Amino acid sequence: MLGTIKRKNKICAIICEYNPFHTGHARQIALVKEKYDKVICLMSGNFTQRAEPAFCDKYLRAETAVKAGAGAVFALPTVYAAQSARIFAEGAVNILRNFNIDAISFGMENPDVISAKRIAGIKNSEAFSITLKNKLGSGLSFATASAEAVAELAGESAGSVGKFLSSPNNLLAVEYLTAIKKFGMDPDIFAVKREGEYGSDDLGGEFASASALRKALLTRNEAAEKFVPFCDDVVNAAHPDYKLFEIITLAAVRGADRTEAADLLNAGEGIENKLIKNSSLPSLAEAVEATKSRRYTYGRIKRLCLDFLLGTRKSDLDFPDVFHPLLLAAKSDVLGELGLIAPTAAVTRAEYEKYIPENFARIEDRAEKIYSLICSVPFSGYVKKLASV
Predict the structure, then answer these.
(1) With contact defined as beta carbons under 8 Å apart, do 93 and 176 qualify?
(2) Strand partners, 22
(3) When you count CB atoms within 10 A of the terminal residue's CB, does the N or C end of the chain come out lower?
(4) pLDDT digits (tens, 9 = 90+) for 359-388
């Protein structure tokens, strides 16, 4: 639906997690606003792609982003947000194709958009599907099989392709571009180099990783303050008890029915039965470690654990032609133009549940109940008052 409504402003969408929002994110918004009039964001809710609870509530993270320069922040449903890079990206792009945007921006460790587009083109081909199937049949993990299939079809070394795709944001970029091609979109692509080392605990540089900041904020390390806009709000917010999260997740796996477990989104080839068997171990970490193999990565096993907890099934995964995402926070001027920018957006729970698939609402409701539990706050519904800045 790009360009179907005439408007004066050029708009760029950022797909993000903001877990938590930090100066690297603020830099990306500032760079985008040098070229585009308005920035809107599509952000993970209370559970992230790592299949973990977000450091703080989705509404607070959205409000922080708007205060830092974003025009509006919409929620990426948990069905998409807590899944593989492919599902995360395809879900996000599917939503954005109903928005009137001119560009999509994302971070990359190596912002080589030409290489990313070439890989995306290969992944959209029938030859890739056939080659991938053969690679998977040899017992490789999906990530390794995918990299080897791309390399074989591109006439490049598996090592060079694997190295490019091993960087999380590079991989997401390829999946965004694959989904963009799949859905027939043609937005400008605004890739921003991700500063700092992914996963590093270093707080001595100009930028810091989100994982380092989560650790520092939990211990109230003052070194984190310079990297986190509106840091007091973030520090004083309710945060999840990760140990409690692991306990209730392990309990969900232990109590699962093996027949029903086969229907979970990340189940397959018996991995769910292996995980259930290993759930007798004392901790979730030990169960995951015992289940991991050459074929089954930590990421997939952790996502399967969350499937057990949230009850996310293969049949729940859907990409409706028209999706109505929930608006979390917005500037007042963007609210006035919402019908032009995001004509399918929902502001209230009634609007949201009127249009989205019932299973999406069910999963959002359960995700919010669990998140409020591990944050020790009252459950008041997964749709709260819109933050207008």
Answers:
(1) yes
(2) none
(3) N
(4) 999 999 999 999 999 999 999 989 988 877
